[in-house]
Every structure is written in C-alpha cells, then in structure tokens.
Amino acid sequence: MKKYVVLLLVLPGLLFTRCAEDTLPFYSGGESVYFENKEINFSFGFSTVMDSVIRVPVIATGPVVDRDRYFLVAYDSISGEEGTHFDPLPARGIFPAGQSRGYVPVRLLRVPGENEIRRVEMRLVAGDDFSLNLPFKFAGGDTTDVTRFTLNYSSAFTQPRGWMDMLYGYFSIAKYIVVCEITGKDESYWKQLPSFTSMPLAPAISTYINSKILAGREHALRDPGNTDPRDKGFMTMRGISSTYGQYVTIPDDWAPANE
Fold first, then answer.
1. Same domain for 256 and 174?
2. Structure confidence at residue 162 as a pLDDT band (50, 70, 90)
3. Are the C-beta atoms of 214 and 236 separated by less than 8 Å?
4. Among 154, 178, 211, where does a domain finish?
C-alpha cells in the first residue's frame, strides 16, 4: 500500500505552515526552479503502511507550458541503505504539463522496530529546462539556499492519542495492527481523541485476544513489543480497566513465545 504525501511535516502528525513573511529576491524573468521549503520531517508514526512516497515540492518561475518538464537533482548526503530504507533515489523531478509546481518523488520504506532518524540531503542542478537563478530566499532576517533540501525520516511507530491503556491495555505495534483488523478502524480513527464511541470496542478486543490465549499456546498471539516478563512475549490485555474488559494471564508452565 503506497501513501502519497504532499503535506510538509515538522513533527509526526503535525503540519508545516509556511511563514507569510518569507520572500524571494527580485526576479526579472526566465525559467528557474527552487525548493518550496528547505526541510521535511517525516515519520511513519502509527500508520500500518510499509512504504510511503514523499513528493518533495519544487516551484518553477517563468511561463507555464503544455508539456512535462524535468529538473535534475543530486545528493550530497544520504543515511540509510537503498532497498532497506528507500527505493533508488531519482536523478530528476517533474513539473507535469500546465503546472508551475513540481516534485521529486522519494519512496521511503519502513523498517519495523527501528527508531533512528535518517536523512537525505539533495540539491538542484541546472539542466536543459531550468536554470538556478534564484539561489536564496529571505525569512526573518535569515538567508536560505533554496537549491538545497533535507528530508528527515523515521520508521518510528508511536502510540496514537486515540489509544488509552485503560480501554485497550498496553500499546505495541503488533497489538495495534490486530486491533485495527478486529475493529475495522484505520489510522484516521486513532488520530482522534478517544470518546464514548471507543468504549464498546474494548470488550470485543479483549474477547478476541483472550480467546487466543484460552485456545492454548499454539494459538496465542505473539507480541515482541510486550515487554512484561509475565506475558512471556505473548499478546494480552494487561493494563485494561476491569470496567471495560478483562485480560487472561499467561499460564506459568508456558514456554516463552520465541522458543
């Protein structure tokens, strides 16, 4: 499942807002290209997707034409490994026909369990369609090189604000995915603060997870994100309030889930 991201993020789940005071120096004409912003911070957060295409936004000056136009990019610094953290990085971006806004498509790959922040630093290169006549912009007294851009990204999987331990027990990646499947709720639901509509979900979740434990060790759900030693690496509802459901304990004679 691919997810095309065109919004600029400064923190997982927060939108970047451009400062209205940012200005470009006087420009007298011609076709030039520059990055709309100098940085994007992206995290896979609590979504369940395993890849995401970031469209790094770029702006062109001069007349709009009725054909696709391309611009060149180069990379000054890259952390992460091709094929593991990202697909091959493109050598050019595109302005679709009739558009003065284009993009560089960068496909990122999620690495489960990895929380390290990685970086891709790119810069624009003059080519047949565009020059680099606008190297700087000014914001708040600072000068920014608009031919250079940094993409910071992370596979971090964070607990959504719609998840309350008292309703669903402890949080983990494996459990979150199971809960999404059981309830049919996607990430847009879990972004919201919990409400009374969330309460009926808890008994259904606990019933399902507990039924797997009661069916025996071979049926119990494994959960490497459950760090409570009493659960031995299995998924439980430990932490749920008795008001909203129950949890079944892991039998003492069970071997750990990874054995």
1. yes
2. confident
3. no
4. 154
